Amino acid sequence: MELAEAFQKAVKQVDTLTQKPSNSVLLKAYALYKQATQGDNNNERPGGFDFKAIAKHNAWLEEKGQTADEAMTAYIDLINGLVAAES
Question: Which domains does the chain have, with CATH numbers?
Answer without folding.
Answer: 3-86 (1.20.80.10)
